[in-house]
Amino acid sequence: MPKRLPALESLRVLEACARHANFTRAAAELGVTPAAVSLRIRDLEAELGVALFRRSGPSVTPTETGATLAKRMAKALGLIRSAVDDCRGAADGLRVTAVPTFAMRWLTPRLAAYHALPDAVPIRLDVSAELRPADGFDIAIRTGHGDWPGFEATALMPVDATPMLSPALAGRAKLSSPADLAALPLLPHDDWRRWFREAGVEAPALRFYADDYPTHELDAAAAIEGAGVALLSPRLFGALLRDGKLVQPFPHVIRGPAAHHILLRPGEARRAALRFRDWLEDEARRPDAGPMPAA
């Protein structure tokens, strides 16, 4: 007689524990107690007759056998999830979470084009600076270097930035070279010195605007009002340049090493999710439209 398979819930617990390398975090994701998780793993090890984890205080490390099984379970659970979701149909749509500026400046203006596709599904957009729990979304768009444990990350486009300011401030400043920007108030940004360096200027002492805003959207609003020069993404804020609300005085744009990434759960196989990912990548490859007004 073939041996009975372990309970699916036990294998689900194994996958979460291996992904988090911590029973407590796995328990929080699964909505159970750490003691229940520990008991599940202990019973599963006894049932299979192999050690699945090495324990060291609160941290756990999968054994080679445990890691291999957990990786295959992640793919299997993804297939199960996609089969169930496809069975339910696409009526509930995709849950997409994105950081605020990217959602407002890049994603939302393009969703009408997505919905013109014959296989488009409804999108439930969540705007959040923090990454939601894995079961709280279908696709996430986050900014970083690709290191999100437990997710498959696909780079969408590099982070870019260039100085932008109001036409009125640019007109008063008489900007003839990048060095002239150092005389203006600069809205705080970690990459100002890098921009000056790449533009060929060893920046003198920089004068920063008094307020440090938490989002690039607020930086852009302050720049429009003439408060100072903002270091902004021409990919995200190109519309403000085309509308003449801001100007880009110099052509140099810094790019990377961070990028906007698409995050999916391991083994994601739903057609709607994969199609939306492919559409995002197609849109990101489209060339930027419209000239960049200069000061």
Explained architecture:
The protein is α/β, with parallel strands linked by helices and 295 residues long. 41% of the residues lie in helices and 17% in strands. The protein contains eleven helices and eight strands. The strands form two sheets. The protein has a six-stranded mixed sheet with strand order 4-3-5-8-6-7, sandwiched between helices. Strands 1-2 form a two-stranded antiparallel ribbon. A hairpin with a 2-residue loop joins strand 1 and strand 2. Helix 1 packs across helix 2, helix 1 packs across helix 3 and helix 2 crosses helix 3. The longest helix is centred in the first third of the chain and has 25 residues. The radius of gyration is 24 Å and the shape is elongated. The C terminus is likely disordered.
Give me a quick take on this structure.
The protein is of the alpha/beta class and 295 residues long. It has helices at 8-20, 23-30, 34-48, 64-88, 100-107, 111-115, 167-173, 192-198, 216-224, 234-242, 271-285; strands at residues 53-56, 59-62, 94-98, 123-127, 139-144, 152-164, 230-232, 254-264. It contains eleven helices and eight strands.
Tally of contiguous helical segments: 11
Bin the strand percentage.
Answer: 15-25%
**Mean of the pLDDT scores?**
89
Total count of strands: 8
Order of helices and strands: HHHEEHEHHEEEHHHEHEH
Major sheet details: 6 strands, mixed
Integer-rounded radius of gyration = 24 Å
